Amino acid sequence: MKPEYINRYLQTAAKKNWILSVFLGALIFLFWGGYLPHALSYAEQYQLFLWTPDYLLGCLGHPGGAAEWLETCLVQFYYLLWLGAMILALLFIGYQRMVASWLKAESFLLSLIPAILLFWAMGDLDVLLSFPIAIMASLAMAKIGVANRWLDICKEMVLTPLVYWLIGPMAWLYVALRIVVDYKRFIWLPLWLLAIQLVLWHTLLEQLPLHSVMCSMGYYRSPSVVPLLWIVPLSVLLCVLADRLYINKVLKWPVQAIAVVVLGWLAVTRGYADERYELVWQDYQVRNEHWDDIIKRAEQKTVETAFWSNSVNLALAERRQLADRMFDFYQSGIDALLMNMVRDPFSNIPAAEAFYRLGMVNSAQRYMFDMQESINNGRKSGRFTQRIAECYIINGKYDLARKHLALLKNSLFYKNWAEEAEQYLGDEAGINAHPVWGKLRQYRQKQDFLFYYPEMASMLGSLFNGNRSNTMALDYFVAQVLLNGDAPTFQQALPWVEQCGGYMQMPRGYQDALNCIQRQGNVPGSPYAAFISRMLAKAQQQQNNQVYETAH
Questions:
Q1: CA-CA-CA-CA torsion sign (458, 464, 467, 472)
Q2: Any transmembrane segments, and where (predicted)?
């Protein structure tokens, strides 16, 4: 029987563990809910969870499907950002507590190390929530044991393939933990799991690369990439081994505390320093039409990408400031207004939104469709599906719109919108009276034309000429002409600006550009002259590089 002072010490340690768990959850909630809510919105827009038996069976039809189903079920609640932050906080508390359940009470600080490493790993925007879910499932199922040796072995023969099918390659952590429990009894388990994976790869999963089947399937947005995620489950295993080998007696709690603090600082400063988060923030503001916030942030911070330029210019156009202030901000080049199509699910979002608001509905629909099909793990997007359905409604293609609305009606947070939109199908008067769809029906091109990206200025000019109340199309047309450096067309467009632009006087940006053209760029302090000089220098550098590559 343990002495009384040891029991009191263990009880105190257990209480500290709970205090640290709650403190960890509070930090996670504040971090994602207050500092990175846009990252939650980003994750939500790349899945569409459906409350249907077919969706469940589709997930369970491949390894890791149960973790995937639970992940998408939870991520759909990121639509409400505070709820998404709460889910992550509870998940981290549960994760830390499950690691702690494998450790002695006096080793409670060690349980924070895997949680911090997980937090660091999730700084990669493409790490899916199925990753921590699979680790937690491994920790829980590895505790299932049978006293009888032979019954326990028979159980593992059945449970190991089942674990792999439910949570995917994280079954390796399950196997490792079972070996830690009883080395002699389960030393054969790695060969059994390896055999299961190879058989499945040669039969049901031959379309996937072997490294995906073995290591990363279902945990990362890109199935073809194996990031260094396995440090996280490895840290769990090392903490369990350290506790069982009494290494914690060598590394006293002050050393463990210092390690936790240093790892936490590195996780925050290194794991979330990617400039991509700035673009994700912009995407979140575009999605919620926070145009003033985009402009205010752009005055303080610049990310030199076409995505950034597209977002800022769209915000300026929505506030009728594009003509005045466009060249006060970084412009990436001729693609600064509307990027050409890039085969990924993120880069063209601001361009697609701009096309939609301009009235180039077919282009918006094509961009949204291509981005949805470019989602690397093959999922649908609630946000993209909603916009595609709107484009079909505006174009009067009601059967296709109904197909997409039927999909959204099986979701939780898009259901009400889909049911409301469905009432407009076939109701021409209702659509024409709609504040957005009716206006875009008037703006859109009425005749077919060939979309050719190098002729973007001509397409924008034609769009404005079709409906001269579309002042956003006029602003974009003139801005594209200036980006192209087409001085004659710009001067010819100025009468349109005076007659149809709705300005009390010639916009400051146009005055600067006209002055720059008349003085052949010799205008110190001119934003447009600085842009032209930068583009000429960039073109000269590209030409020099081509000459060098040709010579070598």
A1: positive
A2: 18-36, 77-95, 107-123, 162-181, 187-205, 225-247, 253-273
3-state SS track over 250-294: CCCHHHHHHHHHHHHHHHHHHHCCCCHHHHHHHHHHHHCCCHHHH
CB 341 within 8 A of CB 367: yes
Q: Cβ–Cβ contacts within 10 Å for residue 171, how many?
A: 27
Lowest mean pLDDT among 28-42, 70-84, 247-261: 247-261
What predicted TM-score, i.e. pTM, was given to this entire model? 0.91
**What is the C-alpha to C-alpha distance for residues 372 and 366, in angstroms, rounded to an integer?**
10
Report yes or no: 483 and 310 within 8 Å, Cβ to Cβ: no
Segment 230-287, tens digit of pLDDT: 899 999 999 998 888 766 566 666 777 888 889 999 998 888 887 899 999 999 999 9
d(CA 431, CA 441): 9
Q: How crowded is residue 303: how many other Cβ atoms within 10 Å of its Cβ?
A: 18
Burial letters for 185-221: b for 16+ Cβ neighbours within 10 Å, e otherwise?
Answer: bbeebeeebeebbeebbeeebeebeeebbbbbbbbbb
In the predicted structure, residue 354 carries a pLDDT above the cut 90: yes
Contact 372, 346 (CB under 8 A): no
Side-chain-side CA neighbours of 213 within 13 Å: the count stands at: 19
Distance of CA 248 to the CA centre of its chain: 39
Q: Which residue has better confidence, 207 or 499?
A: 499
3-state secondary structure of 143: coil
Instruction: Map residue 25 onto helix, strand or coil.
Output: helix
Whole-angstrom Cα distance, residue 137 to residue 319? 50
With a CB cutoff of 8 Å and minimum separation 6, the contacts of 530 are 327
What pLDDT, on a 0 to 100 scale, did the predictor assign at position 417?
A: 96
How many whole angstroms separate alpha carbon 337 and alpha carbon 314? 8
Residue type at position 261: V
Distance of CA 181 to CAs 1, 109, 175, 186, 297, Å? Answer: 24, 21, 10, 9, 54
Distance of CA 95 to the CA centre of its chain: 23
Q: CB of 393 within 8 A of CB of 437?
A: yes
Average model confidence (pLDDT) for the chain? 89
Matching residue, tokens 């390896």:
194
| pLDDT of 2 above 60 | no
CA-to-CA separations, 264 to 43, 127, 268, in angstroms, rounded:
23, 19, 6
Residue 522: is its pLDDT beyond 50?
yes
First to last CA, the chain: 81
Distance (Å, whole) CA 4 – CA 6: 5
